[in-house]
Design goal:
This protein is mainly alpha-helical. The chain folds into two domains: 297 residues, Na+/H+ antiporter like fold (Up-down Bundle), CATH 1.20.1530.20; 122 residues, 3-Layer(aba) Sandwich (Rossmann fold), CATH 3.40.50. The protein is 71% helix and 5% strand. It has a six-stranded parallel beta sheet, sandwiched between helices.
C-alpha cells in the first residue's frame, strides 16, 4: 500500500483544493479554471506547506489531455467549420501569425534564442476552447452567428496547434532544443518527412479502419445494455488509441485522442459517448489544470512584473486588436468583430500543452512556462469583464464615431434581394427565418410542393451558397426590421421562425404584425413554459418539440390499434 499513497495523496489534494478554489472562483464571478490553476500553485513546490508529487501529477495530467482532446474531437463538426470557413480560416491563421510575431519580438528584446521565442509566441497565440465555450454558453451566444464564428475560429486554431505539436519534436534540434544530437543523426527534412508520413499513416488508418471499427464496437457494447461497459469502452478507446498513436506512429497523445473522438463522432452513439464520458473527462481535465498550476512560480510576478505585463498586453490587447481589424477587414459588422476579438483575448489548455512540450524539449526556459501561466491566469480572469464591456463599448463608439456607425451597418451584397427576383417570391410567399436543421427540412417540403419562400439567415456565407443554388435568401439578423423588409414581409402570406429564441421571436413577430397585420406566424420552441407564454400572448402557432413528438407517437399507436380492431371486426371487444 505504501507505493499507492503518493498517488492517492496527490489525487485527494488536487481534487480537494480544486473544489474549494473552483467554488470560490465561481462565487466571485471568475471562471472555475482560475480556481483550478490557483489550487495547483498552492500544492506545488513553489509555495510553502504541503507539496504534491509533481511527477505523478504530470502523468495524471496526460490522461486529462487525452480525454480533453477526445472531447474536442467528439464535438468537432466539419460542417460547422465549413459554414464559417471564409472568415474562420484566414482570420485564425493571420491572428496566430501576428500574435506569434509579437511574442517573438518581445523575447528577442529580452535576448532569448529564436527557437524559444517561436514556441513562446505560439503559446500566446492560441485561445482556450474551454473558456470560450463556457463564456458563450453563459451569455446565450453559443448558437448565434457570432458564437459560431468564434467557435469555428477556435477550431482552426486547435487544428493549427495540433500540427505544431506534431512538428515540434522533429524540429527541436534545429530550433536549439535538447534533442539536437539525436536530430543530427539524419537530415532535418528527412526527419520531418518521416514524421509527417507516420502521422499520415495514422490518420489514414483511423479514417479507413477506425471509422468502421469504432462505431461497430460501440454498437456491440451498447447491445449488452450495460452502462458501465459502454462508458468503459469509450474511455478505453480514447486512451488506448492515444497511447498506441504515440508508441507506434510517433504521434502526440493529443492528436491521437482528437482523431479518436472525430472518428467516434461518425457513430450514432456519439452523443451518448460524449455524455457518458463527460464526468470522467471533466475530472481529469481538472487534474490537468491543477498540474499546470503546480509548474507555476508565483515569484515571477514580483521578479519580472514588466515581462508579465508585456505578456498580458499581447494576449489581451495585441490579439484582440488583431482579431478586431481582421474581422472588420473581412467586411463583418462591428458587433461581430467585438465578440470574436473578446473571445480570443485569453489563452488556455493548448498554450499549456505547447509550452509544456517546449519545456520538455529544451526549447523553452522555465521562466517562459511561468510567464505563459501568468498570462493565462490574468487573461482568463479578465475575460468575463471584457465580455461585459462589449455592449457599453459598442454604444459609446456608435455615439461618438461616424466610422463606428458605418461599420455597424456594413454594406452587405446579400442583405438585399436582387432586382431580378421573380414576383412570386415577393407576394404571397413564406418568409423562413433560419436555415438550420429544422429550417432545411421545412425548405425541402416547400420545394417539393412548389411553394415560394424567402430565407432570412444570419450566416452570410450560407446565404451566398443558397443563392448559388437558386434559393432566394437575404443575409442579416431577422430581429432587425430592415431584414424582414428586404424579405418583403409586408406582402408575405406567412412568417415561419425556425430558430428557438423566445426573446427574438417576439421582436420578429411584432415587426411582421406591424408591417403585415394579417400575416400568419409559425414558431418553434424547446421549452414548455416558453410555448405557453407565446400561446397566451397570441404570438402565433407554436410548435414545442417534445409535445409534437408525443403527438406523433400517440397518433402512430392509435392508428395501429385502430387497424387491428378493424381487422378483428365489430364482434370483438
Amino acid at each position: 500500500m505504501e507505493h499507492n499513497i503518493p498517488l492517492i495523496t496527490t489525487v485527494a489534494a488536487g481534487f480537494g483544493m480544486a473544489l474549494l478554489l473552483g467554488f470560490i472562483a465561481d462565487r466571485i464571478k471568475l471562471p472555475t479554471l482560475v480556481g483550478y490553476l490557483v489550487a495547483g500553485i498552492l500544492i506545488g513546490p513553489a509555495t510553502p506547506g504541503f507539496v504534491a508529487d509533481v511527477h505523478l501529477a504530470s502523468q495524471l495530467s496526460e490522461i486529462g489531455v487525452m480525454l480533453l482532446m477526445f472531447g474536442v474531437g467528439l464535438h468537432f463538426s466539419l460542417g460547422d467549420l465549413l459554414a464559417v470557413r471564409r472568415i474562420a480560416v484566414p482570420g485564425a491563421v493571420a491572428q496566430m501569425a501576428l500574435a506569434t510575431v509579437l511574442g517573438m519580438s518581445m523575447t528577442w528584446w529580452w535576448g532569448w534564442p529564436m527557437g524559444s521565442g517561436l514556441i513562446f509566441g505560439l503559446s500566446l497565440s492560441c485561445a482556450s476552447t474551454v473558456v470560450l465555450l463556457k463564456a458563450l454558453e453563459a451569455r446565450g451566444l453559443l448558437d448565434t452567428m457570432n458564437g459560431r464564428i468564434a467557435v469555428g475560429w477556435l477550431v482552426v486554431e486547435d487544428l493549427a496547434c495540433v500540427l505544431v505539436l506534431v512538428l515540434m519534436p522533429p524540429l527541436a534540434g534545429a530550433l536549439g532544443g535538447s534533442t539536437a544530437d539525436v536530430a543530427g543523426a539524419r537530415p532535418l527534412w528527412t526527419t520531418i518527412g518521416l514524421t509527417l508520413l507516420e502521422v499520415t499513416a495514422f490518420i489514414a488508418l483511423m479514417l479507413l479502419a477506425g471509422r468502421r471499427l469504432l462505431p461497430w464496437l460501440l454498437w456491440q457494447v451498447a447491445r449488452t445494455g450495460s452502462r458501465e461497459l459502454f462508458t468503459l469502452s469509450v474511455v478505453a478507446a480514447a486512451i488506448s488509441i492515444a497511447y498506441g498513436a504515440a508508441r507506434l506512429f510517433s504521434v502526440s497523445f493529443a492528436l491521437g485522442a482528437f482523431l479518436a473522438g472525430m472518428v467516434m463522432r461518425e457513430s450514432e452513439f456519439s452523443h451518448r459517448a460524449a455524455t457518458e464520458s463527460l464526468p470522467l473527462r471533466d475530472a481529469f481535465s481538472v487534474l490537468f489544470f491543477v498540474s499546470v498550476g503546480m509548474l507555476f512560480d508565483p515569484t515571477i510576478l514580483a521578479e519580472e512584473p514588466f515581462r508579465v505585463l508585456g505578456v498580458v498586453a499581447i494576449i489581451v490587447l495585441g490579439k484582440t486588436l488583431a482579431a478586431l481589424a481582421l474581422v472588420i477587414a473581412l467586411r463583418y459588422p462591428l458587433n461581430t468583430a467585438l465578440t470574436v476579438a473578446v473571445s480570443l483575448a485569453q489563452i488556455g489548455e493548448f498554450s499549456f500543452i505547447l509550452a509544456g512540450l517546449g519545456l520538455a524539449l529544451g526549447l523553452l526556459p522555465a521562466e517562459g512556462m511561468s510567464l505563459v501561466l501568468a498570462g493565462a491566469l490574468i487573461s482568463i480572469a479578465l475575460n468575463p469583464l471584457l465580455f461585459a464591456a462589449i455592449a457599453p463599448t459598442q454604444r459609446w463608439l456608435r455615439g461618438r464615431s461616424e466610422l463606428a456607425r458605418r461599420l455597424e451597418r456594413r454594406e452587405d451584397p446579400y442583405a438585399e434581394l436582387p432586382l431580378s427576383t421573380e414576383r412570386k417570391y415577393l407576394e404571397g410567399q413564406v418568409v423562413l427565418v433560419g436555415y438550420g436543421r429544422v429550417g432545411r427540412r421545412i425548405a425541402r417540403a416547400l420545394d417539393a410542393r412548389g411553394i415560394p419562400y424567402v430565407v432570412a439567415e444570419q450566416n452570410r456565407e450560407l446565404v451566398e451558397d443558397l443563392r448559388k443554388n437558386g434559393t432566394v435568401a437575404v443575409s442579416g439578423d431577422a430581429t432587425e426590421p430592415a431584414v424582414l423588409i428586404q424579405a418583403h414581409i409586408a406582402d408575405a402570406a406567412m412568417l415561419v421562425v425556425a430558430t428557438p429564441d423566445p426573446l427574438n421571436v417576439r421582436r420578429m413577430a411584432d415587426t411582421a404584425r406591424t408591417l403585415n397585420p394579417d400575416i400568419e406566424i409559425v414558431l418553434r420552441t424547446h421549452s414548455e413554459d416558453e410555448s405557453l407564454l407565446l400561446r397566451q400572448d397570441g404570438t402565433g402557432t407554436v410548435f414545442f418539440g417534445e409535445e409534437e413528438l408525443a403527438k406523433g407517437m400517440t397518433n402512430h399507436v392509435l392508428e395501429r390499434f385502430a387497424i387491428q380492431q378493424g381487422a378483428q371486426g365489430p364482434g370483438h371487444g
